[in-house]
Amino acid sequence: MNMVQAINTALRQGMENDKSVVLLGEDIGKDGGVFRVTEGLWQKFGDERVIDTPLAETAIIGASIGLAINGFKPVAEVQFDGFSLSMIDQLVNHAARMRNRTRGRFHVPLVLRIPYGGGIRALEHHSESPETHFIHTPGLKVVAPSSPYTAKGLMASVLKDPDPVIFMEPKKIYRAIKEEVPEEPYTIDIGKAQVWQEGSDVTVIAWGAMVKTVREAVEKLKGKYSVEVLDLLSLSPLDVDAVVNSVKKTGRAVIVHEAPKTLGFGAEIAALIGEKVLLSLQAPVERVTGYDTITPLPKLENEFFPNIDRVVKGIEKVMTF
Question: Which entry of 126, 133, 136, 257 is annotated as an active-site residue?
Answer without folding.
Answer: 126
